[in-house]
Write a structure and sequence with these properties.
With 260 residues, this protein is an alpha/beta fold. Helix content is 67%, strand content 13%. Helix 1 (3-20) packs across helix 2 (22-33) and helix 4 (200-217) packs parallel to helix 5 (233-242). Residues 124-137 and 250-260 have low confidence and may be disordered.
């Protein structure tokens, strides 16, 4: 009989034999213990597995709790660190705002001081300018009076200060009055400008005033003369170009007329 047939017979008859024959049943149990645990052993093993799982779960829970505690501590440290950082930022912002406020106040004070200095300078400049202009006018008038007195009384020379009105605006580009000093001796006719200072523009203006007077009175001046203690270099160049004589220092002044 082949092994396959034997196996089929055992599979068919063995359950009946185990059920009916205690000895066979006992033998089968003894043989099966070598490969399979009995109920008690199976239950014990199951209990051990459950216990191990319980212990492992508790250990994992403990580890999770420990980890959560560490995370909470870390979060608390982070929160404390953030709180301190925010407090530091607020303090820094307050310091910057205070510094900016003080800087703005200082700038206002400095600007106020500068404004006061500028105002004082303008006041001084105005005062000095007014004094200078007044002194210049007084000096011009004094020199004009002295020149008139000397020339008229000692040399028989007429010194005339004339003021005329330029209706067409030939001199200044608009209608205005002009002032000139005339020096006349017999047939000699000199147009003179006596001033405390002469600039380039002043020199051109004097030449236009002289030509205006010549044209109006149809009389050509023999000489154009400027007498001033301060004549700018640019004005001297213009005077040379226009044929205007300049007397700016005592050592440079020459006699105007010969013997009468």
């Amino acid at each position: 009989m082949e092994s396959q047939q034997i196996k089929q017979i055992l599979m068919r008859e063995l359950p009946v034999i185990i059920h009916q024959d205690p000895e066979v049943r006992r033998l089968i149990l003894e043989l099966s213990r070598q490969y399979f645990a009995d109920r008690a052993e199976t239950e014990n093993r199951f209990d051990r597995i459950l216990e191990e799982m319980r212990q492992e779960r508790e250990e994992n829970s403990r580890k999770w709790e420990e980890q959560n505690r560490k995370w909470e501590e870390q979060n608390l440290r982070w929160e404390e660190q953030n709180r301190r950082w925010e407090a530091n930022q607020q303090e820094l912002r307050a310091m910057r705002e205070e510094q900016n406020r003080r800087w703005e106040e200082n700038q206002k004070i400095i600007q106020q001081m500068l404004d006061e200095i500028h105002a004082l300078n303008r006041k001084h400049d105005t005062t000095i300018g007014a004094l200078g202009a007044r002194l210049g006018l007084y000096t011009e008038q004094s020199f004009r009076n002295a020149l008139r007195s000397i020339l008229e009384e000692s040399f028989g020379v007429r010194v005339i200060n004339v003021v005329e009105y330029d209706d067409a605006g030939e001199v200044f580009g608009r209608p205005d009055q002009i002032e000139l000093d005339l020096v006349i001796k017999d047939s000699v006719f000199i147009i003179c400008e006596i001033s405390s200072s002469m600039s380039k523009a002043d020199m051109y203006t004097f030449e236009r005033k002289a030509r205006f007077y010549e044209k109006r009175h149809e009389r050509k001046a023999d000489r154009l003369m400027v007498i001033s203690p301060m004549v700018s270099p640019q004005a001297q160049v213009v005077a040379q170009k226009l044929g205007i004589e300049i007397y700016t220092h005592a050592e440079e002044t020459a006699p105007v007329f010969g013997k009468g």
